[in-house]
Amino acid sequence: MNPNLSRLHPYPFEKLTQLKAGITPPKDLSSIALSIGEPKHAAPAFVQQVITDNLERLSNYPTTRGTDELREAISAWATRRFHLKAGTLSAERHIVPVNGTREGIFSLVQSVVDSTRPATVVSPNPFYQIYEGAALLAGATPHYLACDADNGFIPDFAAVPAEVWKNCQILFLCSPGNPSGAVIPRETLAQVIELADRHDFIIASDECYSELYPDEAAPPEGLLQTCAAIGRDDYARCVVFHSLSKRSNLPGLRSGFAAGDASLLTDYLRYRTYHGSAMPIQHQLASIAAWRDEAHVRENRTAYRDKFEAVVPILRQVMDVDFPDAGFYLWPRTSMSDETFALELSARQNVHVLPGRYLSRTVDGYNPGENRVRMALVAPLEECVEAAGRIVQFLKNY
């Protein structure tokens, strides 16, 4: 077996299952899951119809690079959304469809990391665990940059020692952040691009929450948008990942894309051809319809906005909690151990959240996820409000 498999940590939800083993929540209270970031809003009916109308395409092998029409739809969407110079993000050279951001991110690391020399993969901490797992399986060493309230949940890149950058081959960004929802501003993104040029590493920006934001007039900036703003129209050393899972409530479609540096994506596509990650054609056709429509995305944002506006004031009765910049998570402090909070809340109120330490690693004795929990406001509004009320009752009675 690959010896690097033994380096993998249990997934956060494995830890949560182990934590709650043996408890029996009250049977008179319905279970409300705020622990998993799986969108529960209805999938767009028009997307479902496209799949239904094209089931005969199950008889066709898809290509790894996807259809021209899909890549053109993605190019058009990204160019509009991120104010890119026309023609600089070409469907032919700058876009690779992926089967969701998890699969895409994993395969990028496998294709990029050169383990014949010292290899470091730098990521925020807390983080999406695939960053770490992909690095370990590629033979690289993860390096974690703490994200906490003191730095606005955005790493202090200027404070990273030069020796870390020396061996860095990939830097992961997550903006809006999981779990904090923090959005990295243009000035910081430009700083990171300068660091990548100076130390010759790749920036991989996970932007799967970019379309969930509170202010319709102020969408989060993306890495390619910063590239365009500073005149970097070749997107050198920059790759972004986007998905329809959160934007369009289509987590089961497994549809997203990588876009950016064409020279990097050429070899990435070659790796993926052997990796066998082609998106089914009927899913490509459904994805085209989704990327071309914004009405359902605005409705989605409205639904999340309504939940935040209802839930946060309730929780503020008993918790230190803020509205996120974007995304669908709350990341509140807890007055007790995050594990104790999650365990007792499940046992007493049948409401389930994720301990923050399960999303983080301890470095030099410090874990930035401790004494925080992640709450995903993915359930219907009524359930989210009910869950908030139970959390208040739990903390008042604990």
Q: What is the level 1 CATH name of the largest domain?
A: Alpha Beta
List SSEs in N-to-C order. Answer: HEHHEHEHEHEHEHEHEHHHEHEEEH
Percent helix: 25-40%
Measured by DSSP, the beta-strand proportion falls in 5-15%
Indicate the mean pLDDT: 97
Task: Please specify the SSE layout and strand pairing.
Elements: H1 12-19, E1 32-33, H2 45-53, H3 68-81, E2 95-98, H4 101-112, E3 120-125, H5 129-137, E4 141-146, H6 162-167, E5 168-174, H7 186-199, E6 202-206, H8 223-229, E7 238-243, H9 244-247, E8 256-260, H10 262-275, H11 281-291, H12 295-315, E9 329-330, H13 338-349, E10 351-352, E11 354-355, E12 373-376, H14 381-397
Helix pairs in contact: 2-11, 3-11, 4-5, 4-10, 12-14, 13-14
Describe the structure.
This protein is an alpha/beta fold. The chain folds into two domains: 142 residues, Aspartate Aminotransferase, domain 1; 235 residues, Aspartate Aminotransferase, domain 2 (3-Layer(aba) Sandwich), CATH 3.40.640. 40% of the residues lie in helices and 13% in strands. It has a seven-stranded mixed beta sheet with strand order 2-8-7-6-5-3-4, sandwiched between helices. It has a three-stranded antiparallel beta sheet with strand order 9-12-11. Helix 8 links the parallel strand 6 and strand 7. Helix 2 runs antiparallel to helix 11, helix 3 runs parallel beside helix 11 and helix 12 packs parallel to helix 14. The chain is globular. The N and C termini lie far apart (47 Å). The relative contact order is 0.18. The model has no long low-confidence stretch (mean pLDDT 97).
